[in-house]
Write a structure and sequence with these properties.
alpha/beta, Chemotaxis Receptor Methyltransferase Cher, domain 1, Rossmann fold, binds S-adenosylmethionine, single chain, globular
C-alpha cells in the first residue's frame, strides 16, 4: 500500500488535503514477461527485465480504473476483453516517452533546409505538391519545426504543402493540435522563430500561428500498423526520430519496411542521432549530406541493397 495525497478538487473536503490508501498491485516476474511481450507485439516498444518496477508503477492505476485486482487478470483482460483495444490505447498514454522540443537535432535540420528542400522542389516541380510525415511526433514540436522551415525557405509558395504528425499517444496528439507551448519546448529555438511564428499568451506560454498550423494534420497511428500506413498515400520524406530506439529489432525492421513502401524512389528517411539502420537488412542507402547523414530509397529500387553502411 502507498499513501496518495488527494487534493480538494478531487474530493470534496473542508481540509486542504487528506491522505487516502491507494493499492499498488504487485507484478510478478512471469506476468511481467507476458505483459511486456504483449506490449511489444502491439506497439514495438520493448521493456527489458530492469523495467519490471516501471511497468508495475505506471500500470497500477489502470487496474484500479478497470476494477481488476491483480496483474494476471489484467493481462487476460488485455488479451480477451471486447474493450481491449481501448485499454491498449490507454496503456500507450502512460508508457510512451514523449520528450521533444523545437529545432531538435539542428545539423539534420540544416541539411533538410539547405539540401533536401531544394531537391524536393526540383523533384516535385510538376505536381507542386509535397507531403512530409513526422512519425512519432509527440506534442508536435517536430512537425511545427518542419512547417516553419518550409515557410522560411520560400521555395514552395503557392504549393500544396501537407505535413502529417502521427503518434500512438492520444494525450500528446491533443496537445499537438492545440499548438500551445511552454518554455521547456523552446530550449533550442532561436528568438527569431519565436517572434515570427508564435503569439505570446498570458502566463508565459506561446501559441503557434495559423500560417504554420494550417500546413499540419495530426492523427493517431501505430507505427506497427502496416495497413493504416498504406492509406497515408505517397510521402516524400519521413522524419522518425527518437521513437525506434524504444523498439526491439524485429519491430524496427517491420516499421522501416513500412516506411520503404510508402516512400517514392529518391524519398528520404530521417532518423534520430542515436538511431541507425545498422544490422538491419534494408533497402535504404545511406547518403552523406553537408551537415548530416540521411537514408534514401534508391532511385532504381530494383537495385536493392542488402545492408547499410555504418553511420
Ligand atoms: C521521444 S518522442 C520523439 C518525438 C520527436 N520525434 C522528437 O524526436 O523530438 C517518441 C514518440 O514516439 C511515439 N511512439 C512510440 N511508439 C509508437 C508507435 N508504435 N507508433 C507511433 N508512435 C509511437 C511516442 O508516443 C512518442 O511521442
Amino acid at each position: 500500500m502507498i499513501l496518495k495525497m488527494i487534493l480538494p478538487s478531487e474530493r470534496q473536503s473542508r481540509w486542504p488535503w487528506v491522505f487516502e490508501k491507494t493499492e499498488v498491485f504487485v507484478l510478478s516476474d512471469d506476468v511481467f514477461r507476458l505483459l511486456r511481450d504483449l506490449i511489444r507485439d502491439y506497439s514495438g516498444m520493448y521493456f527489458d527485465d530492469n523495467a519490471r518496477y516501471l511497468l508495475e508503477k505506471r500500470l497500477t492505476a489502470r487496474l484500479g480504473i478497470n476494477n481488476i485486482n491483480n496483474y494476471r487478470d489484467y493481462y487476460r483482460y488485455l488479451l480477451y476483453d471486447k474493450k481491449r483495444e481501448d485499454e491498449l490505447a490507454a496503456i500507450m498514454d502512460v508508457l510512451t516517452v514523449n520528450e521533444t522540443y523545437f529545432f531538435r537535432e539542428k545539423n539534420q535540420l540544416l541539411s533538410f533546409s539547405e539540401e533536401l528542400l531544394p531537391e524536393l522542389r526540383q523533384r516535385n516541380r510538376n505536381s507542386r505538391k509535397i507531403k512530409i510525415w513526422s512519425a512519432g511526433c509527440s506534442t508536435g514540436e517536430e512537425p511545427y519545426t518542419i512547417g516553419m522551415l518550409i515557410l522560411e525557405s520560400n521555395l514552395f509558395n503557392g504549393w500544396d504543402i501537407e505535413i502529417l504528425g502521427s503518434d500512438i499517444n492520444r494525450r500528446v496528439l491533443q496537445a499537438a493540435r492545440k499548438g500551445i507551448y511552454r518554455q521547456n519546448s523552446f530550449r533550442s529555438i532561436e528568438r527569431y522563430y519565436v517572434n515570427k511564428y508564435f503569439d505570446p499568451l498570458p502566463g508565459g506560454s506561446f501559441k503557434i500561428l495559423d500560417k504554420v498550423k494550417k500546413l499540419l494534420n495530426f492523427g493517431y497511428l501505430n507505427l506497427l500498423d502496416a495497413v493504416k500506413m498504406g492509406f497515408l498515400g505517397r510521402i516524400d520524406m519521413i522524419f522518425c526520430r527518437n521513437a525506434l530506439i524504444y523498439f526491439d529489432m524485429p519491430s524496427r525492421k517491420k516499421v522501416v519496411e513500412g516506411f520503404y513502401s510508402v516512400l517514392p524512389e529518391g524519398g528520404y528517411l530521417l532518423l534520430g542521432h542515436a538511431e541507425s539502420l545498422i544490422n538491419m537488412s534494408t533497402a535504404f542507402a545511406l547518403k552523406h549530406l553537408k551537415h548530416d547523414l540521411v537514408y534514401q530509397k534508391p532511385e532504381y529500387s530494383s537495385q536493392r541493397m542488402t545492408s547499410c553502411r555504418k553511420r
